[in-house]
Amino acid sequence: MTSDTKVYLLDLGSMALDGLMIYWMHGPSGPIRFPVYGVLIDHPDGKFLYDTGFDKSFIDSMIPNNAIQAERQTLQGQLDLIGLRASDITHVINSHYHVDHVGGNKHCKHATTVCHKCELEAAARPRVFEERGYSDMSFAPGLRGGAQSIGYGDDIYTPRFETLTGDQEIAKGIFLFETPGHTPGHYSLMVKLAGRRPMLFSGDACYTQRALDENIIPGAHVDVQASFDSLARLRQLAEQHDADVFCSHDPDSWKTWQPAPGFYS
Amino acid sequence: MTSDTKVYLLDLGSMALDGLMIYWMHGPSGPIRFPVYGVLIDHPDGKFLYDTGFDKSFIDSMIPNNAIQAERQTLQGQLDLIGLRASDITHVINSHYHVDHVGGNKHCKHATTVCHKCELEAAARPRVFEERGYSDMSFAPGLRGGAQSIGYGDDIYTPRFETLTGDQEIAKGIFLFETPGHTPGHYSLMVKLAGRRPMLFSGDACYTQRALDENIIPGAHVDVQASFDSLARLRQLAEQHDADVFCSHDPDSWKTWQPAPGFYS
Fold first, then answer.
1. Do B25 and A129 touch (CB under 8 A)?
2. Chain A residues inside the 8 Å CB shell of B224
3. Fewest 10 Å CB contacts: which of A65, A140, B110, B142?
4. How confident is the model at residue A50, as a pLDDT?
5. What ipTM was reported for this prediction?
6. Please, which residues have CB within 8 angstroms of residue B123's CB and are 6 or more apart in sequence?
7. How far is CA A229 from CA A181, A223, A225, B131, in A?
8. B87 near B75, Cβ under 8 Å?
């Protein structure tokens, strides 16, 4: 808990999915538009960015007429609101490597990229049902191709990637908790702040408050049992730390939060 | 391969599901009506019935205005077409214990009930995401309740249930192959006949021919990787045995098959 830590929520646009893909086995069916955001933690040890949204042109080529992202909703557009540049980011932390969470990574050229070891391995060698999720590899173009593209040889564990396993406190008051199931190496994030209850960012371990309340996992997942276990873990962490849970893609909750340039501290 | 074995396809009505529940991650979204059928194998060793459809009144109470089942599409209605009664069935084999596969079990009062050991255990102690699928327990009302209801004490492995593991040839030319993923203990069925290529009934390891061709698993599943492995296994079995695959819920294929009182031999 550091009194000089600030948390900014960066509005990175929106996408739409069928309700049956948001609420597995429940729905309702039909398209639901949901927000995509990043979490910037301005901390004495650095500027940490948890998830970087999508690259609109990439999504447009994959799913036409889906992504909405005004110029001010790009990563740089949001950073402009608080007087930063992408090159100021010291650490990019990815909850996981799906297309709507990594689009801005490539702009953070001076950042160490932090993720779970299993996540990098999954993205490097996706199974057939993982390929679509891991289709924007622009943040590490050599990850599947070997030496030339990123210049680190076949060793993908370069200084650019800091891979972790287990729960970790990566800086004072910044915690990563393992919440696999949606993907093999998913991390949720908790930030302790001086002036308010801890903020627990679920990432895609839980899309919405309804999903948390009604125990519904995302339609996209690699491990059903692990997904439910991670939902239970989020509830338990929230209780244990008296934390507020911020779900990843909740249109209703999003409207009630304070976006950048406002912040939590 | 016995020259006096006949296979009847029993038309047991239809239900509807959203396309995203039929074709996981693919869709299209929106309701798709699909057939539900049973496979009656008239064999020198007995009358084997693979899956027994749904109980319309049960489905009506669970999902109003979904199930369609004319009187002639009940189990007895179909057996009437070939001059049998439910009490003539010697063995009920369930691919798995979901509601649309067990509804007629309770009418086959003289039958041994054959299933995978893991399936009976899953139905006896369902996890939260299995409860809805395993909601029609009319075929074994004591399975979760203990002694009084079925009168066999807490030992659910009574003579009424014959639980198996591994691939099995349960009678000459009648094979069960493990195909888990949709449920923990799913069995597909192959029947060798004198006069035609073997018939490989996928059960819900594969809903439709499109799913087989395009490698798409059912929206309802307990294990994603196992579901894909079972799809691959079905393709491999079909090739190895030069078998025709009969998927469980394919509206298009169903129209091309020969329903009872016609038969395959």
1. yes
2. 129, 221-224
3. A65
4. 98
5. 0.91
6. B97, B130, B134, B137, B140, B143
7. 8, 10, 6, 16
8. no
